[in-house]
Amino acid sequence: MHRAAAAALLACAALLLPAAPASAAAPAPVGWASAGPGTTGGAGGRTWTVHTRAELKQALANDGDPAAPKVIRVAGAIDGHETDAGTSLGEQDYAPGYDRTKYMSCFGEDGTTWSDTRYDYCGQQRRLRQTGSDNEKAQIQLTVPSNTTLVGAGDGAALLGVFLTVNTGTNIVVRNLRLEAPVDHFTSWSPGDGTSGNWNARFDALTVITGKHIWIDHCVFTDGRFPDRAAPSGFHGERVQRHDGLLDIEDGSDFITVSDSRFEDHDKALLIGSGDSRADRDRGHLKVTFARNLFTGITQRAPRVRFGQVHVVNNVYRGRAADTLYALGVGVESALWSERNVFTYPRGGPSLAVAAYGGTAFHDTGSWFNGRPAHLDAVAGGLGLGDDVGWDPADVYDYRALTSAKAVERYVLRHAGPGRSHDRA
Description:
The protein contains eight helices and 30 strands. The chain has helices at 3-15, 53-61, 91-94, 100-105, 122-140, 279-282, 376-382, 405-415; strands at residues 46-50, 70-74, 77-79, 141-143, 148-152, 158-160, 163-167, 170-175, 178-180, 188-190, 198-200, 206-209, 212-217, 220-222, 247-250, 254-259, 262-268, 270-272, 288-291, 294-300, 304-305, 309-313, 316-318, 328-331, 335-339, 342-344, 354-357, 362-365, 368-369, 372-373.
């Protein structure tokens, strides 16, 4: 490459990076997590290094002062099903005697109607499913308190089957981690959900509820060892859905950035908003930025947005048209600003990029689909969506997007995911 061209490319790539901090401390986020006081996590607090679930739980409690600043370094892979004694729990440990095949049979062959009296074991199976679900939740859920940095220490840092949650926490950083979505051993069948019923799993890899000032960076979210294609068969010849979301942001959460991360091999990936009827909690909140992330093998919700002011900039979307419903879901009262994203779905059309779910407006600037301008505003217009979302990210925080598809792809493919950040623990 000519020296001048190379210099120009490097300069362009640097534009989207956050400004280097004045000290040698950890970097700062771009986007909504940089607003107001910013997001620093547990910088300057006590440092923990953890290897097991028990140690992680102890570090989160921080010797009885969970909200005090702390940096928790995850060394190696932590299994959410591991007990304090080091043994691993499975379905029968949570609910001895539970049998999914028996549970399904209580809905009848067509899966339409539950009856406690259809077989003599149906009442028992209903109770065991609920008990097992509650016991599994109590085991795998770990809550991140305020003023915490949770960071992977090395390439193998992972949370496997952990249901990581933020519940009213603020000023939290999660970086350099592989988060493998939990398998719900007790997923429930809802015959009235959709046209022919759906399975509804309970656990996300990460759920943020009423959390504020959160930065998720250089992580990977995935189904990992337990992809949907390996799930057991359920009703109507389809597989049982044992996963919920990869990352859900709900109940008035605010000032969140998700950057330089990967989302892989999952159905319903990212949900912003608690529900169409939850304006009392979500209206005026849910300010989220997704910058420079890689989405591969994601069927839908990348993200789906209700109410929030969400900026989706310089992300790369890759998949097969046959396996994709949509990428960006425009929900009730959402204000989704899409900017210079790269969509690659061989033999698919730009309609795979946007779907309308009760929203009224969507804006896109300069995105590409299969190497050409995507014209997503026109696609959205065909769905009855206007292009005035009522805000512009440039009026809220400083950033400059990469302006060519090649630059976006080059940067994201090189930098997204754990072990690729410039301040690895």
